[in-house]
Write a structure and sequence with these properties.
alpha/beta
Amino acid sequence: KVGLCFSIKANPFLLKFLPGEFDKIEVCSPGELSICERIGVDLGKIIFSGVNKTRKDVERAIDDGVDVLTVESHLHLQLIHEAAKVRGKTVSVLLRLTAGSQFGMDRSDILDIIANRAQYPHIRIVGIHFFSGTQKRKAAAIIKELDKLMVFFDEVKETHGFTLQRLEYGTGLAVDYFAADAEDQEAARLDAISDKIREVGEK
């Protein structure tokens, strides 16, 4: 019930060697998309994410057949919808919920888009994208975020009769690359959040 997504910006040189356990690849720029095209990545696995996308960027991603695009703003949504309409396609999107930064949209913007989703017949809203930052060393912060997100999913269903089916979530777990017990620390952090991750996956 839980898939793994590799963000190419972490290390594009690993793309050719990703194990089969990775379901999706997050691509955040036209340059990263070019890398994927060049080495023959399955473009149907790509989540095309991030801000500052031009009309040309959006059109290219749709033409490539990426799996899903994230939506960072109302303008971004309009660009995606117009490009999909011209091509006679319906495009799947994840609405990015802000964590209080300049990235993504606040709750009211997302609720407005969902309430008015009939205005975008060439858009299929499949879920929410959420990432609040890195270097989280304690499970409590991640568990708290996931609980809040699930409350929001319930709110969407109760107020608009709409079921969000997917959550793309960046845990932001800290990694101590140079510690002698780095692997043990990582395993412990993953174990501490695994039950909550499974619970969210079931939901």
